[in-house]
């Protein structure tokens, strides 16, 4: 680990030690990595050197160590010219390569005229199929500098490393692996891909006033470190996005992530086995991130509640056979859910609250749902979900944004007509966007706008017919119910008459 060329530069006291180090630096390359560490430890001890070891995971290995990451960034930026073996990773947006120290490599650093050495190591444990890997950095220095190293040098490394890390980092989209794949040898609890979603607040079709409010809220949150500390609140914010399908809930999450430059953790609850697994996943997230749980109403134990409401709704269904069938189906689905995951509502609430209190760095959690009324109030109460945002059907302001994005126009003779139609028709921004998109090179803005008007008129007509049918069904159901009640009354009266007759006899 000591480069042959730099071995003689070490400059420690004593000719014997100097010669020992020199010989060691010559032979080091012939000694296996694991043995090198032991020999060097021995030599350092003889030289009066001490060391500090930093693991890539903290405590019980639940959480990734921020100190380790900062050291890695610091060393990548500061000591690469002196390392012999380097690892190359593709950087942000894959434009260049980022070099870092390879395993079992050593570099030296100088701070306030004092030389220190950093050694990178990796330890493997477990079986072949479930291999665990732990990485370490070991800092070695002469014991007479202990005070300065612990007080000033470490602070310098962590501060610089954090800044470099933020500058270099490529934002990521994380998804949770199922617990069967939680061997650290692969990716760990979260797999990731670079996050390159193009959505921004500028391209998001929604009420401009609401949009500005959300942006202001996000800025206030991201700059609120001292404020949250002052009021004694964990630095977190919860958003609930609700609305019909295709109204831009997922798009809004990407826009938020791009706006704040945060990572996104897409948490798929159905693959989380139980509450403790959920807690581990949440603890393994980094700061500056958005944790997303999509379609929370369709997840796990909450479906039970949702189904119960559905059953209650269906109670007035007069067809017994239908009712039994539905009940059976619901029970079967419930059983399937139970096999899949045992995460409960209280487990999720504890996981979220525990997470906030355990981490000092900023985090946003976002739930999305199509059915806000079916969620348990405990899940979305203010303080847990601070901001409830309704994503609604496309209105004229939203349409103008879409027309600008998709057709690059800001006005058209038919805008007035479209405004009127959008007020009378429920059409999602996703549908409007799809209709506006040119389908070939021959289609210009005019054709696309006319297609939208036609589609809106068709949708309006469809909705009118549907409402008519619904009304008809309702009337039929009412009259059926009335008829049934009348028949029952008649039957009761008949029985009553018969009983009376019998009594009289
Ligand atoms: N408000 C919007 N602004 C801009 N584009 C939108 C908007 N809503 C939807 N879209 C377009 O429609 C597509 C689907 O939207 P998105 O996935 O965000 O909807 P959603 O509300 O998450 O739907 P679901 O409830 O089905 O998950 C997006 O990729 C985007 O192109
Ligand atoms: Mg969505």
Automatic annotation (TrEMBL):
The chain crosses the membrane at residues 7-27. It comes from the Eukaryota. GO terms for biological process: response to stress. Its cofactor is Mg(2+). Pfam families: AAA, AAA_assoc, AAA_lid_At3g28540. Residues 307-340, 463-505 are annotated as: Disordered. InterPro entries: AAA+_ATPase, AAA_N_dom, At3g28540-like_C, ATPase_AAA_core, Mitochondrial_chaperone_BCS1, P-loop_NTPase. Residues 235-395 form the AAA+ ATPase domain. Residues 328-340 have a biased composition (Basic and acidic residues). Keywords: ATP-binding, Hydrolase, Magnesium, Membrane, Nucleotide-binding, Transmembrane, Transmembrane helix. GO terms for molecular function: ATP binding; ATP hydrolysis activity. The keyword Zinc does not apply. Gene3D superfamilies: 6.10.280.40, P-loop containing nucleotide triphosphate hydrolases. SUPFAM superfamilies: P-loop containing nucleoside triphosphate hydrolases (SSF52540). This is AAA+ ATPase domain-containing protein. It comes from Capsella rubella. The lineage of its organism: Eukaryota, Viridiplantae, Streptophyta, Embryophyta, Tracheophyta.
């Amino acid at each position: 680990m000591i480069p042959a060329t730099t071995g003689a530069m070490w400059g420690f006291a004593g000719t014997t030690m100097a010669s020992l180090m020199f010989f060691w630096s010559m032979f080091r390359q012939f000694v296996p990595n694991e043995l090198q560490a032991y020999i060097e430890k021995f030599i350092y001890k003889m030289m009066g050197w001490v060391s500090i070891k930093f693991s890539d995971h903290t405590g019980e290995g639940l959480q990734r160590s921020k100190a380790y990451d900062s050291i890695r960034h610091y060393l990548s930026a500061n000591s690469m010219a002196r390392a012999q073996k380097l690892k190359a990773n593709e950087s942000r947006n894959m434009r260049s390569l980022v070099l870092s120290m390879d395993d079992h490599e050593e570099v030296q650093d100088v701070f306030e005229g004092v030389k220190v050495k950093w050694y990178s190591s990796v330890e493997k444990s477990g079986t072949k199929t479930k291999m665990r890997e732990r990485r370490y950095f070991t800092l070695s220095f002469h014991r007479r500098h202990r005070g300065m190293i612990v007080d000033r040098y470490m602070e310098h490394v962590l501060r610089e490393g954090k800044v470099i890390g933020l500058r270099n980092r490529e934002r990521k989209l994380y998804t949770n692996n199922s617990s069967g794949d939680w061997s650290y040898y692969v990716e760990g609890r979260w797999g990731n891909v670079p996050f390159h979603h193009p959505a921004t607040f500028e391209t998001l079709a929604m009420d401009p006033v609401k949009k500005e409010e959300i942006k202001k809220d996000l800025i206030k949150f991201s700059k609120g470190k001292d404020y949250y500390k002052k009021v004694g609140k964990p630095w977190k914010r919860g958003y609930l996005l609700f609305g019909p399908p295709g109204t831009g809930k997922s798009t809004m999450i990407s826009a938020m992530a791009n706006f704040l430059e945060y990572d996104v953790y897409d948490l798929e609850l159905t693959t989380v086995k139980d509450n403790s697994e959920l807690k581990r996943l949440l603890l393994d997230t980094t700061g500056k991130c958005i944790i997303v749980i999509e379609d929370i109403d369709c997840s796990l134990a909450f479906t039970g509640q949702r189904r119960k409401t559905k059953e209650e709704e269906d109670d007035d269904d007069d067809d017994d056979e239908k009712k039994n069938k539905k009940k059976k189906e619901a029970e079967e689905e419930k059983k399937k859910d139970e096999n899949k995951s045992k995460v409960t509502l209280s487990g999720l609430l504890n996981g979220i609250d525990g997470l906030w209190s355990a981490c000092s760095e900023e985090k946003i959690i976002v739930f999305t749902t199509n059915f806000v009324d079916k969620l348990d109030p405990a899940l979305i109460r203010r303080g847990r979900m601070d901001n409830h945002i309704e994503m609604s059907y496309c209105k004229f302001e939203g349409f103008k944004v879409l027309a600008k994005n998709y057709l690059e126009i800001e006005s058209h003779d038919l805008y007035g007509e479209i405004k009127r139609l959008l007020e009378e028709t429920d059409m999602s921004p996703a549908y409007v966007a799809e209709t506006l998109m040119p389908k070939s090179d021959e289609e210009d803005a005019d054709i696309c706008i006319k297609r939208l008007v036609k589609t809106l008129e068709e949708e309006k007509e469809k909705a009118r017919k549907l409402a008519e049918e619904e009304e008809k069904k309702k009337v039929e159901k009412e009259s059926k119910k009335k008829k049934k009640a009348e028949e029952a009354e008649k039957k009761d009266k008949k029985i009553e008459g018969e009983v009376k007759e019998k009594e009289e006899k």
